Every structure is written in structure tokens, then in C-alpha cells.
Amino acid sequence: MSQHTHFQGFDLTDFWDEYDGYTSAEEVTDERIAETERLLGYKLPLSYVELIRTKNGGSPVNVCFPMDEDEGYIAISAICGIGGEWGIDSDSLGSRHMIDNWGYPDIGIVFGECPSAGHDAIMFDYSQCGPQGEPRIIHVDVEVGEGEEPVRTFLASDFETFIRGLVHEDVYDTSEEDKQFDLEKARHAPFTPLLQQLCVSADSIFPQAEQTLRRLAESIIEEKGFFALHADLRSHLMYDLEFLLYVNAEGAVERDAYLAAYDKMLVFGPGGAFSTGGYAPGFVSDWLDERIKSGKIVEVTADRKLAFAKGYYQGILRQAAEYS
User: Fold this and answer.
1) Among 70-79, 138-147, 178-187, which range has the highest average pLDDT?
2) Domain 30-172 has CATH 3.40.1580.10
3) Whole-model pTM above 0.70?
């Protein structure tokens, strides 16, 4: 049955993204559809069947379903087809698995993957129409408190309406606004109390510490579009400067003690503070271990406390001068 009765005036040619990670190699035949319906106990929407005949599951190009203006949008990763690992009838990842093991309500079929890797999904909801009717489309969030019911949010009256409502993620692209917001914070937001204290303490050896940190942060934001420290050269310079400021004020420090204090400098602070707001500790520990291995940070006391090697300490100040 290949007659097209849905999506009139809606071009499905470019609906699917080229990524095939969610795609089943099985052919969508009438017999395979009937078998899936028997297995799951529900009549599949004809519009869904028509769509998966064009490609048996996959990631759409448009992945955002708009909600009310103050609620943003629901993002999806894939629309599952039938058969294969990701099919709605899959034993390992399909709808019954999600209902039995993840706590999704037993009211229909889980067919839409979301970016949360299982903590929310899109469902055919047959609770009002019965197993042979036309299901509503709902979003279900199972990431709730212990003993609480999953949160169900109505999206569309039917599958075709849901598909027609999807829009490209560029509609919600706020990257430029986010970049400008981070630049404004880098230029003017107050430092965390610890970082401010460290900058004041370094006035005699590094009088332009605050200005340097702010300008280095600006260069990181201009490069990445947001403020975050990773394993790149500018991030490593920021780690170096933080270590320099800390050891100048507190003296040589044990490795674990420094890593424990790190997030109080440029990661977490009062609301609105100049900070990254979060970090991956591995980036910092890897930087520190590399500096120790290369002899740029050395043990300077009998109890193995650390400080910069003299030559590297001076080199850091020279690098910092580029941003002062």
C-alpha cells in the first residue's frame, strides 16, 4: 500500500538528516507493519507508516517542536521506525522496554527519542482514542522525584500535525546573544571573593592581574563563542595564571589541596560573578599533571608541595603581558 494520503503539500524529500544511526535496514512492508501492531497491541497511525516508508527511522533535519512562547520547545533526536535495534518493536530499546524498565506510562507507544538518552521521549498516546484510534502526540518526562508520576505534555492532536510542526534548531539559536552576555560578564562582572583576594595579593608581582584575566577571558569567548576552559592553549594559560595567583597568596600547595580549591576561583561564585559556572575537573587535573611531568611545576618542600619552576614562572608573566 503505497498510496499517499497524508502530508499533502508537504515535501518529505529533505525531511531526514543523512545520519543513519537510528535507521533500520528492514523494509517497511504491510506484513511487517501488521506484525509490529500485533506485538505492541496498537494500530499505527497511517501518517507514521507513510513517513517511515520514506526511511525506516532516523533523525529529522528539523528537531524542535515549539511550545507556548514562555515554554520554549521540545527537542528530538530521532523518530524510530520498525525493526532493528532502534525500532519501536525492539526488545532492547523499543517501546515495551521503555515502558517496562524506564517508567513510561503504559498508554501507547514510545516512538521519539530525545537528547536526554532515555529520560524523556515522545509517545503515541492512545488513552483517549483506544488501541485502534488516532493517538495524540505527547512528550513524557520520567526524570521526576521518587514516587512521582511522569510528566505528560500534550504536543499535537495527531502525528502528521506533529511532523508539520517541527522547525529547525536555528530558530532557537541564541549563540550570538550568549556570546555577548559572556563578553559583558568578562568585562564588568565582579570576581569571586577568592579570585579578587588573590588578585589584590599579587599587586606587587602582577599589578594588572584583573585586567589580564578579563582580556584573556574575552579572547577565549571570541574564539569559542562562550566562556569555558578546556585543553586548548588559552585555557592552559588561564590555568597557569590561576595557579600563579594562588601560590603567590597561599604559598606552595599540595596537588589535591589545589584541585579542591580550584572551583572557588573561576568556576563557582555569587550570582552574576565572573565565572565559567561549571567545569570538567579532568581538564584541570590533566593540565596540572602535564605541568608536573614537564618540570614546569615542581615540588619545592619536603612534604611535596608544589610551585612553578622559576623559569616557567617568569615565562607565564611574559605571556600574560600580551593581554594586559
Assistant:
1) 178-187
2) yes
3) no
